[in-house]
Write a structure and sequence with these properties.
Helix content is 27%, strand content 25%. By secondary structure, the protein is of the alpha/beta class. Strands 1, 2, 3, 4, 5, 6 and 12 form a 7-stranded mixed beta sheet that branches. The mean pLDDT is 88.
């Protein structure tokens, strides 16, 4: 009874809270989430890059019903993680195509590979890659507006821990021959035209509860780009979606999520679904941006709340044993 009572109390309080919850939106913001559902085994082959990039451009200019609308009324377009699995900033033709896609004032937020190049060789004049980043890039009609380099990398996926030791045994990371480099912390907020300050989360960065907000300024939106094509039709994409949704509830912030093959979705600051594209569905999702809530108890105290719960439990157990 003692164990069940708090669960029933939490459920009842939650139902009452949601019953009184409003559904305010941010005026003048209309977001289109694009889910291209590119086959994972084909995505990283260079000979396919141009075809998949062009397909995403065309898909972005169609509404959820499949009708072409040239992004009329859309203020922001969101593509998934590594939607451009090539260094987009080094391809002028790709930047020009993005500029042609976007109406005046619209913004594209997309995942891409970013390369930091070493200085050119004085003998040959050629440059070589120095560092690779898994990045979020934001573009306006005239070019790059902002970027974010992923901070929390996937061990053995994006980098090899204890690289000198483990590489001697023939081990290597899955992505990029040299591995990715981590972005700088604290994670910066995206401040883009037409949007309130947004915190960017790439892939599994959304599973770390206390690490969503890292700076002093509170965001008003979570943008999560992910691939999730690695998991296939398994519990993986569904579990990953649920974990991202919990971040919205914890922080009291709306969440917009774009995944390569699903599950793309948008949630309000209470965690209520505003729309979803199911696994392996190719299409677009149009949503208005929900308003953020005042800071929640978790946003203020973080994991200290759980520590306090443990301390209370330990103290209660100690008292029970001592009295017994």
């Amino acid at each position: 009874a003692v164990a069940v009572l708090p669960l029933l109390l939490a459920w009842g309080l939650g139902q009452a809270r949601l019953a009184d919850a409003g559904s305010g939106t941010v005026p003048g913001v209309k977001i289109r989430v694009v889910q291209p559902s590119v086959p994972q085994r084909e995505k990283w082959r260079p000979e396919n890059w141009a075809r998949f990039f062009q397909d995403q451009l065309e898909l972005s200019a169609h509404d959820p019903g499949g009708a072409p609308d040239k992004l009329v009324g859309i203020t922001h377009v969101v593509w998934p993680e590594a939607a451009m699995p090539f260094p987009a900033l080094d391809y002028p033709e790709a930047l020009a195509a993005i500029g042609q896609l976007l109406p005046e004032g619209a913004v594209l937020i997309a995942g891409a590979i970013r390369i930091e190049w070493a200085e050119a060789s004085p003998q040959t004049g050629t440059k070589r890659p120095r560092r690779f980043f898994n990045s979020l890039l934001a573009f306006g009609k005239e070019g790059l507006l902002a970027l974010y380099d992923k901070v929390r990398l996937v061990p053995f996926g994006e980098y090899l821990p204890l690289r000198q030791l483990l590489s001697a045994f023939g081990l290597r990371q899955i992505a990029a021959s040299e591995g990715y480099s981590s972005g700088t912390e604290p994670r910066p907020l995206l401040k883009l035209p037409g949007l309130p300050p947004a915190v960017p989360l790439i892939c599994y960065e959304a599973v770390f509860p206390a690490a969503v907000v890292q700076g002093m300024e509170r965001p008003a939106l979570i943008i999560n780009l992910t691939n999730d094509g690695w998991f296939g039709n398994s519990i993986g994409p569904r579990q990953h979606l649920h974990q991202a949704r919990v971040r919205a509830v914890e922080e009291g912030l709306p969440l917009v999520r774009a995944a390569n093959n699903g599950i793309s979705a948008a949630f309000d600051a209470y965690g209520r679904s505003l729309g979803q594209l199911d696994l392996d569905v190719r299409g677009t999702l149009d949503v208005s941006l929900a308003a953020a809530l005042p800071p929640t108890p978790y946003a203020r105290a973080g994991d200290a709340l759980f520590l306090l719960t443990w301390l209370i439990g330990a103290a209660s157990l100690t008292c029970a044993v001592w009295r017994g």
